[in-house]
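Session log. Operator J.P. requested a structure for one protein chain; no other inputs attached. Running the standard single-chain path with token output.
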Amino acid sequence: MFCCLGSQFAHAQTTDSSTSAKSTSDKTELKYNLNESGSHFFKATFLNQTWLRFNQSNPGTTVVGDPKDNTFDIGLRRTRIQLFGQLNDRVLLYFQFGMNNFNFLNASPGFNTTGTISNRKIQAFFHDAVAEYLVFKDKDYLKIGGGLTIVNGLSRFTQPGVSNIMSMDVPVFAQATVDQTDEFARKLSIYARGQVGPFDYRVAISDPFPIQTNGAAPPALGPNASFALKGHTKQFQGMLLYSFFDKESNQTPGYMTGTYLGKKKILNLEAGLISQKKAVWYTGATASDTVYHPMNLWSVAAFLDMPTNTANGTAINAYLGYFNLDYGRNYLRYNGLMNPASGTTQAVGGLGGTQGNAFPMFGTGSVIYSQVGYLFRQNLLGGNGTLMPYAQAQIGTYDRVNGSVGVYNVGLNWLIRGHNSKITLDYQNRPYYIALPATGKLEEQGRRGQLVLQYQVFI
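Structure written below.
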């Protein structure tokens, strides 16, 4: 049966007129048509992102109990399988299964050196499981869906399509509650989304997970805000986008494209928000006085992705966004992507996870994020594809940090076959901190770097 199904996938025709005439030897997707026209189909995609990384460690970093000034590690940033399809004129079914941040430490929140039993074979899980109904036949005006989904408010980078991002990685701060009250940015939600003229919208009501279920010990109630351990409230979110030229892809629920590599002419303005009552708590006038506080996050941004010369295939990608983030009084959280370190001897201000490549990523305050990239002409390297250099800047101003938190990346994509086969070299420069005894605020003490070579395969 599996052999037969594989054969059907391999020989299924695509509905894209630009590729429908290609021979089966030049297939670019695994797709099984459910009707003759191909408008009803079921499709599979596979993604793997492998990292080779050298990192200058934050002060005090330890790796399995040993102090380390720097580390070299090999890991899988993302390994994913998507299964989705338009089952009939109105119903879409979407699943995504996979794992993230799998290195020698397995990025386990419970990792320790005391001999306590752990299990490196529990990483893979369902990221998405969504059913969606198209209300108006053949029109994208209104789609209603529900399940475990990345459909979010706030911004395009709160729901990024990671297989087609322009830079090596996304600005994770925009996935505002990632692995705190969600499942790797996914939430149990009901939503409505659609496109009406130049407007693209999405609204959702989400049922956030309790912080106690994220696999790590939650912080104790104290004078600085943290996600509340008591009570449960729903989360409301929405996003509105205005397109000046081409409309964006709207097929899969939520996911927004990072770059179309010059295949579309995109200029968008967007605004988004996430709001939840009593999401966080902290102590008030006395240690026994508990104050509950809402989480209110909003952003505005502009996104550009368009060809500069259609004849040779050059293109530009740019984004500029402002994020206003209220998680409650002095909320601050460190995060390091696929952190290569397991502990620290120099905890910063009572905050967890400050070792390795971590920096203050989430906090009450504001963030300005920008990126720009340029796609060189197609076949710049002959039959070996082309190049796309880029730069990113993330500048956060948080209530609990003196000065700004500036994190900068520069990189180069070697697009061997577009997003299907690409190698990215990325350098990141980030700050590290100490906590001032008098105020408890964080003060920058220096900077560290990280160099990553990523190979992405996507089909």
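Operator note: Helices lie at 2-11.
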